[in-house]
Amino acid sequence: QSVLTQPPSVSAAPRQKVTVSCSGSSSNIGNNYVSWYQQLPGTAPKLLIYENNKRPSGIPDRFSGSKSGTSATLGITGLRTGDEADYYCGTWDTSLSAYVFGTGTKVTVL
Amino acid sequence: EVQLVESGGGLVEPGGSLRLSCTTSGFTFSSYTMNWVRQAPGKGLEWVSSISDSSGYIYYADSVKGRFTISRDNARNSLYLQMNSLRVEDTAVYFCVRAPYSRSSDLTHWGQGTLVTVPS
User: Fold this and answer.
1) Do A32 and B61 touch (CB under 8 A)?
2) Which of B46, B105, B113 comes nearest A35 by C-beta?
3) Which of B47, B60, B108 is nearest residue A100 as measured by Cβ atoms?
4) CB atoms within 10 A of CB B41
5) B2-44 pLDDT per residue, tens
6) In the prediction, which pLDDT does B1 show?
7) Are B54 and B22 in contact (CB under 8 A)?
8) How many Cβ pairs closer than 8 A exist between chain A and B?
């Protein structure tokens, strides 16, 4: 069972905005950076956001991340059909001495 | 360009063993922490194990502790996962993943994965 909780799915029309939440605890999100991963159908996951709100080279600024307390949020603006994918949050859990992932959220473009 | 290529997956009976390998290129392998992450068919991501650059820090998920062993050969730029006492629930695609340091939250580079199947 995942330590981090995400909504199973979110959806919006093209060019609109969606947000994906990730809820944890003080032993993971509360005291460590959060990363976000995008997994397009049939492919390996890709790092989308690191250290809460930074984007790796090549990731458009339509993708953003934030963290507050024991929760984190991924934002996607100007939604495109190519953004349809599963999104996962992840972080190190100090108490478990383990990396933990969120339950995953499927983003659908209506 | 960073490249991570997994191999060694396949079909293995419950209770059997398998050794996965990850061959890397395009970066100084000995400077990075490496991880194994798996994904069961139709399910989410599950972290399996992590090994620091010099093998000084090793961590395992509770679900594989005592059955799986992570190791690395910095001279060969390779990462390994020895899987023993395999169970049906170990069926998954196993990804080799690079991280900047031990206990990092950033899994920056992923391989394409290798499928391990343990039939019921």
Assistant:
1) no
2) B105
3) B47
4) 9
5) 999 999 999 999 999 999 999 999 999 999 999 999 999 999 9
6) 95
7) no
8) 69
Indicate the helix (H) or strand (E) that contains A53. Answer: none
Tell me whether residues A45 and B35 touch, CB distance under 8 A.
Answer: no
Residue B1's identity, in one-letter code, is E
- Beta pairing class for B92-99 and B33-39: antiparallel
Residue of A nearest to B63 (CA): A1
Q: What is the rounded distance in angstroms from the CA atom of residue B91 to the CA atom of residue B51?
A: 22
Kind and range of the H or E element at A37?
A: strand A35-39
Say how far apart CA A54 and CA A67 lie, in whole Å: 12
Is B108's CB within 8 Å of A90's CB?
Answer: no
Between CA B36 and CA B83 the distance in angstroms is 12
Nearest CA in chain A to B64: A98
Strand partners, B93: B39, B115
pLDDT in tens, A27-78: 999 999 999 999 999 999 999 999 999 999 999 999 999 999 999 999 999 9
Q: What is the pLDDT of residue B102?
A: 87
CB contact under 8 A, B105 and A44: no
Rounded to whole angstroms, the Cα distance separating B13 from A83 reads 38
Q: Count the residues in chain B.
A: 120
From the list A17, A18, A1, the residue with the least C-alpha distance to A105 is A18
Which two structure tokens, joined as six digits, stand for B9? Answer: 């997956």
Q: What does the DSSP 8-state code read for residue A77?
A: -
Q: CA B83 to CA A109: how far, in whole Å?
A: 40
